[in-house]
Specification:
Layout lengths: L1 H15 L3 H6 L2 E9 L10 H13 L11 E2 L1 E3 L3 E8 L1 H8 L6 E4 L2 E4 L3 H9 L16 E6 L40 E6 L17 E2 L12 H10 L3 E6 L2 E6 L7 E6 L1 E2 L2 E3 H14 L3 E4 L1 E2 L12 H11 L3 E5 L18 E6 L3 E9 L4 E5 L1 E2 L9 E5 L10 H5 L8 H4 L3 E5 L7 H10 L4 E5 L9 E3 L3 E4 L1 H13 L4 E4 L3 E4 L27 E4 L3 E4 L18 E4 L2 H18 L5 H10 L21 H4 L6 H4 L4 E2 L4 H11 L3 H8 L22 E6 L6 E9 L5 E8 L5 E5 L2 E4 L5 E9 L6 E10 L4 E10 L1
Parallel strand pairs: 2-9, 7-12, 7-15, 8-12, 15-17, 17-18, 18-29, 21-25, 22-23, 23-24, 24-26, 33-40
Antiparallel strand pairs: 1-4, 1-5, 3-4, 6-14, 6-16, 10-11, 13-14, 19-20, 19-27, 19-28, 22-27, 30-31, 32-34, 34-38, 35-37, 35-39, 36-38, 39-40
C-alpha cells in the first residue's frame, strides 16, 4: 500500500520543481538551528537577550528596504539555541554559512500519527491484580505536545492529588475559551502557539521588530491531544465507554502523574518550528517525560540536523528529559519508521484482546463477521438490496473507479436505498472517503472488502458499515452474482472480549530498519494502538452520535499515536517508583523486559500471521510491571550519543555546538562503530559472511540484588554463529557494572536480516537483548 503512495508523492514532488524559481524568491518559514543554549555554567541567555541576538543576526541578511520582515516566529533560548523566521531561499543559504549556525532548513509540516489496554498489559505480565507496588510519587510530570486538551474531561480531575511540585515552572495560558481555572493539580500547565501558515509574512507590522505572539487557546478542537493525554496520565474513570462499547474503567498509565499540554498542532498538521519551541518550553517548565504522537513523512525523512523533533529530543535528553515518539503509520513496508534517533524512545503499535464486530447477514441467512464501529438501527428482521459498487458506476466512469467508490464515480440513482459493496484495491481512497461517497449517494449501508485493514475498526458513526476480509468478500460477491435480487443487512457493533491472538503488530505500524541509519534497531518497543478507549472532546454532530444519546466523553482511536502515550505513561509509572533512574535506565528496563509471546503462549505475530521480528515490534510489547524490577539496565550516556554523531559523520565543530562542550571525536570515526553504542538492542547492518566475525561490546548496570550472578543464553537463527563472553557476569556491592562482548559470524547464515536475542538470567530476572544482523 505504502509503495503506491510513495510513487504518487514522488510524482507530485517532481511537478512542484516547476515552480522552484519563483518559490526561491518568496519568503517562507525556516528554522535556524544554532546548537545548545546552555553555557558551561549551565545557565542560558535570558529570553529578551536571546531574541535581540537572533534579530541582530536576522538583520544582517534581510535587505533594509524589507525591514518589515524583521520578525521572529519563534525564538529558542532555553536548552536549544536558534529561531524561526520568514526567509527567502537565498537568505536561508546565506545564514547557513554563518559560523554560529548549525543548520537552516524549511519549516516542515508534521502529521499526527493517529482502559482495557492497561488491564491487558498488566494481565500479560503474568502478575494478576493484588500486587502491592512501592509507593508511587505524584511528582512526575508528563508533557504532551499535541492538539490541545479538553480540561473538563473527568480524566483530568484532580480530586485527592497533592500540591503541585515546587520545581514546576510552567504556566496555564488563558485564551478566549480557556481560563487559568481550567488548570488544576492534575492538569498543571497548558501552553499554545500560533499555528503559523502565512507564507507571505504578513503578520509583521510596520517596521517594528518583534516575536509573533500566540493567538488562540490551549483548548483541543480536534480530540487527538485529549485522547493521548488521558492515555498517558488520565485518572481512573469508572463506567467509561464509547456509547456502550468497551465499557469499563478508563485510566492512564500513570494516574498519579501530572500533565502539561503544549498545543502545537491543528487538524491540518504541526509546524516543525512550533514543535521545537514546545520542546524547549517543556524542558524549561520542568517536565520529566515528553510524549509526541507526531512525525515527519517516512517518504521524505530528513537527517537529524534537519528534523525538529530529533533536534529538540537531543537537547531534552541532554537535560535529563525522556522523549517518547510514535514510529509512524506507514507500514507494513520496511524502512518506514520515523523518529528513529537513538535518543528518542520509538514506539510501534499492536492490538489488545478485544474486537468490535458488526455482522453482515445476507438474504439467504448466511452471516459474516465484519470489523467496525457503527451504531446503525438496522436489524436482522429486514434486509435491503445489495449491490457491488462496480455495477453502480456513473456514466463514463470506469468500473475500477466505481468499485473503489471514488468520489463522483457512483450513480446516485442506482445507489439509493442499497447496501453497497466496495473494494479497497486503491489505497489513495481512504475508508472515510468511501463511506462519505456512498452515504452522500443515499446508500443504506457499506460493506468494505479490505484484507489489510480489517483488524483496525473504522468508526462510521450511525451509518451502517462493516469491513470484511478477502475470503468473506469473495463469498458476498459470489452471493450477489448467484441471485436475481440479492439482499443483506448490517447489524450494529458489539464488543467482543478475549480475542486471540493478542497482541498482534498492527498492519499500519511503521517498520524498520531505520531509513536514516540501520545501525540503531528501530522501533524500540510495541504498545497498544488499536481501538484504544480514552478521553475525547464531546461532539454533538448527528453523524456520530446515536439517536437519543448524549455526546460521549470517550472515544476509540487507533494509530501509533495511541501507542506512544502508553509508553510515556509506563515510563512515568516507573519514574514514580524509581525517581533516581535516568531516562536511559527506564528505556532499557522497558525494552529488556518486553513481552514476546501472545495470550496463547506463542510468539508475537504481525497482521499476516507471520512471526513478528524486531523491525516490526522492536524488543516486544511493553511490560510495565516487570520493568519495575529489570535486574540489569543499559545506561546510554550523553557521551555515547555524541560519539554516535561522530560516527554518523557530523563534524566536530557541529557536535560541539550541539553539546555546548569541547567534546572531541575519535580520529577514526566510522558509521559501523555506531553498533557499539551502549544501546539495549544490537543492529549490525553489514556482516560479510566471507570475513571474520563482528564483535560488539555492551555494559550493564545491576539495579537488582547487590550480590548477583547472571548467565548468558543465546537464541540465534540457524547458520548465524553468536558467542558471548564472559558467559557469566558477577556483581557485588563493590562492582555494580560489568561488560560483555558478543561476536557474530555469518558464513553459513541466510543472506539478509537475521534476528535473535541474548538473555542474561540470575534465576529471577531475564534481561533480553534483541539483535538484527544483516548478512551480505
Amino acid at each position: 500500500m505504502a509503495s503506491i503512495q510513495k510513487l504518487l508523492f514522488f510524482v507530485t514532488a517532481s511537478s512542484l520543481l516547476l515552480y522552484g524559481t519563483t518559490a526561491a524568491q518568496k519568503p517562507q518559514s525556516y528554522i535556524v538551528y544554532m546548537g545548545s543554549s546552555s553555557k558551561s555554567n549551565g545557565e542560558s541567555d535570558t529570553e529578551p537577550a536571546a531574541e535581540l541576538a537572533h534579530l541582530q543576526l536576522l538583520s544582517s541578511i534581510i535587505p533594509s528596504e524589507e525591514s518589515q520582515r524583521l520578525s521572529l516566529i519563534h525564538s529558542y533560548n532555553h536548552a536549544i539555541k536558534g529561531f524561526s523566521a520568514m526567509l527567502t531561499e537565498k537568505e536561508a543559504s546565506s545564514l547557513s554559512g554563518h559560523e554560529k549556525v548549525v543548520s537552516v532548513f524549511p519549516d516542515p509540516v508534521l502529521q499526527l500519527h493517529t482502559t482495557r489496554s492497561w488491564d491487558f498489559l498488566d494481565s500479560e505480565s503474568g502478575i494478576r491484580s493484588g500486587i502491592k507496588y512501592p509507593q508511587a510519587s505524584s511528582d512526575v510530570i508528563i508533557g504532551i505536545i499535541d492538539t490541545g486538551i479538553w480540561p473538563e474531561s473527568p480524566s483530568f480531575n484532580d480530586e485527592g492529588m497533592g500540591e503541585i511540585p515546587s520545581r514546576w515552572k510552567g504556566v496555564c495560558m488563558e485564551g478566549s475559551d480557556f481560563k487559568k481555572s481550567n488548570c488544576n493539580r492534575k492538569l498543571i500547565g497548558a501552553r499554545y502557539y500560533t499555528i503559523f501558515s502565512d507564507s507571505t509574512g504578513s503578520k509583521s507590522r510596520g517596521n517594528r521588530t518583534h516575536v509573533i505572539r500566540p493567538i488562540g487557546s490551549p483548548r483541543d478542537s480536534v480530540g487527538h491531544g485529549t485522547h493521548t493525554a488521558s492515555t498517558a496520565g488520565g485518572v481512573a474513570v469508572a463506567n467509561a465507554s464509547y456509547y456502550g462499547l468497551a465499557h469499563g474503567t478508563a485510566r492512564g498509565g500513570s494516574p498519579s502523574s501530572r500533565i502539561a499540554m503544549y498545543k502545537a498542532c491543528s487538524l491540518g498538521g504541526c509546524s516543525g518550528s512550533t514543535i521545537l519551541k514546545a520542546i524547549d518550553d517543556a524542558i524549561k517548565d520542568g517536565v520529566d517525560i515528553i510524549s509526541i504522537s507526531i512525525g515527519m513523512s517516512s517518504i521524505f525523512q530528513s537527517d537529524f540536523l534537519n528534523d525538529p523533533i530529533a533536534i529538540g529530543a537531543f537537547h531534552a535528553n541532554q537535560m535529563g528529559v525522556m522523549v517518547v515518539c510514535s514510529g509512524g503509520n506507514d507500514g507494513p513496508d520496511p524502512y518506514t519508521v520515523v523518529n528513529s534517533a537513538p535518543w528518542i524512545f520509538t514506539v510501534a503499535a499492536s492490538n489488545i484482546d478485544r474486537d468490535f464486530r458488526s455482522t453482515v447477514v445476507l438474504g439467504n441467512g448466511q452471516p459474516f463477521q465484519g470489523s467496525a464501529i457503527n451504531f446503525s438501527n438496522l436489524t436482522r428482521s429486514k434486509t435491503y438490496p445489495l449491490a457491488f459498487a462496480g455495477a453502480l458506476a456513473a456514466v463514463s466512469t470506469p468500473s475500477s473507479e466505481a468499485s473503489n467508490c471514488y468520489p463522483g464515480s457512483l450513480d446516485s440513482k442506482k445507489v439509493a436505498g442499497k447496501i453497497v459493496v466496495c473494494m479497497d484495491t486503491d489505497p489513495m481512497v481512504s475508508r472515510r472517503i468511501k463511506k462519505l461517497v456512498v452515504e452522500a449517494a443515499k446508500a443504506k449501508g457499506l460493506i468494505l472488502i479490505d484484507e489489510s485493514e480489517k483488524g483496525v475498526p473504522f468508526d462510521a458513526g450511525v451509518f451502517p458499515f462493516s469491513e470484511v476480509g478477502d475470503m468473506a468478500g469473495y463469498q458476498i460477491l459470489k452471493y450477489i452474482n448467484s441471485t436475481k435480487n440479492p439482499t443483506a443487512t448490517i447489524l450494529p457493533t458489539v464488543h467482543v472480549p478475549g480475542v486471540r491472538p493478542a497482541p498482534v503488530v498492527a498492519y499500519f505500524s511503521s517498520r524498520g530498519p531505520g531509513g536514516i541509519t540501520e545501525t540503531i534497531l528501530k522501533p524500540d518497543v510495541t504498545a497498544p494502538g488499536i481501538g484504544i478507549l480514552a478521553a475525547i472532546i464531546p461532539r454533538s454532530d448527528v453523524i456520530s452520535v446515536p439517536v437519543g444519546k448524549k455526546p460521549s466523553k470517550f472515544a476509540l482511536k487507533s494509530g501509533t499515536s495511541m501507542a506512544c502515550p502508553h509508553v510515556a505513561g509506563a515510563a512515568a509509572f516507573i519514574k514514580s517508583v524509581h525517581p533516581g533512574w535516568t531516562s536511559s535506565m527506564i528505556k532499557s528496563a522497558l525494552m529488556t523486559t518486553a513481552t514476546t509471546s501472545n495470550n496463547m503462549g506463542k510468539p508475537l505475530t504481525n497482521s499476516t500471521d507471520s512471526f513478528a521480528n524486531p523491525h516490526e515490534m522492536g524488543s516486544g510489547e511493553i511490560n510495565p510491571i516487570s520493568a519495575l524490577n529489570p535486574g540489569l539496565v543499559y545506561e546510554t550516556s550523553t557521551d555515547d550519543l555524541l560519539y554516535f554523531l561522530c560516527y554518523y559523520g557530523y563534524k566536530e565543530k557541529i557536535i560541539r555546538s550541539m553539546s555546548g562542550t569541547n567534546f572531541s571525536c575519535p580520529s577514526n570515526s566510522l558509521e559501523d562503530f555506531i553498533t557499539d553504542l551502549n544501546y539495549p538492542s544490537i543492529s549490525i547492518t553489514k556482516l560479510d559472511g566471507r570475513r571474520a566475525a563482528r564483535t560488539v561490546t555492551r555494559t550493564v548496570t545491576n539495579v537488582g540484588s547487590t550480590n548477583a550472578m547472571y548467565t548468558a543464553t543465546v537464541h540465534a537463527p540457524k547458520g548465524l554463529l553468536v558467542k558471548v563472553w564472559p558467559e557469566r557476569l558477577v556483581f557485588s556491592r563493590a562492582s555494580h557494572k560489568a561488560s560483555f562482548k558478543a561476536s557474530f559470524y555469518g558464513k553459513t547464515a541466510t543472506r539478509g536480516y537475521n534476528f535473535g536475542h541474548v538473555t542474561w538470567s540470575d534465576g529471577i530476572h531475564s534481561v533480553r537483548t534483541v539483535f538484527a544482523v544483516n548478512v551480505v
